[in-house]
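Before a computer can learn anything about folding, someone has to put a protein's shape into writing. The three-dimensional part falls to structure tokens, numbers that each stand for a local backbone shape. The protein below has been through that process, and both of its lines are reproduced in full.
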Amino acid sequence: MTATIAGLRQAPCPPQAPVGPAGSRPPQGPAGGRPPQGPAGSRLRLVPAGGRPPQGPAGPGTVTGSVHSWDLSTGVDGPGTRFVVFTAGCPLRCVYCHNPDTWSGRSGRRMSAAEVLVQAARYRKFIGAAGGGLTISGGEPLLQPAFTRAILTGAKELGLHTALDTSGYLGSRADDELLDATDLVLLDIKSFDPAIARKVTGRGIAPTLAFARRLAARGQVVWVRFVLVPGWTDDPGNVAALARFTASLGNVERVDVLPFHTLGAPKYAALGLDYPCANVTPPTAGQIAQVRAAFTAVGLTAL
């Protein structure tokens, strides 16, 4: 039996999948996963009540994008508990990516920004009490800049702290209006060395570094994220150069050193793709500490 509560229909659902290390919880939501979970393991989904509120010509109801899924997370995608939107589509092909199912824009569901914000608004009080907010991730959200801007702007109007999780490769698509609506940028710098970056992502690193400098010039708050993959990104010279560059920016609050894991491997098999890191062993605690020390040695906070 189900019951309608404040415009939501509550129904039983199976237990949530376990959360792995380094923020590896599989994204959930309308496309390829379960919607966010409510109290006592209940599934919450919208029941239309009187139709969608009217939108202006440039309102979030008129801006659409491809959404892979959404989830609630704590301590992974910015401060506090976050409503995380995973957009579909990415220009990079990182060898260690644990969400290859987000690479194609066709893997998502077409939604308006208003529809996404309706989902986020359900959790506004809970998120606010937990010191969190809304994070837009991917995929690569800047592949859909108008959609990303509309979601971030709408989240600010809801009174939510906002975060943009991006590789920065498409940073030139983020206009000042989008960045003005962003409280925190989670900047995933894959490598500093251009050759390593191209080997790891299939693309160059120059656009990401240019975006990092632009954010610094704006005084935008940034958390840098660096994935430590033994044999791929762990070259000491590469790490030291990235640490010096990051320290030179002056706007980076912290660096998250994220250890590689293999929890995404089954997705490659399901998609019929070869997994480039099938034989890579996750870094040891000593290796992680060594990389963190390279960042703290130049005055940065590294976690």
Notes: Residues 25-35+58-296 form a domain with the TIM Barrel fold (CATH 3.20.20.70).
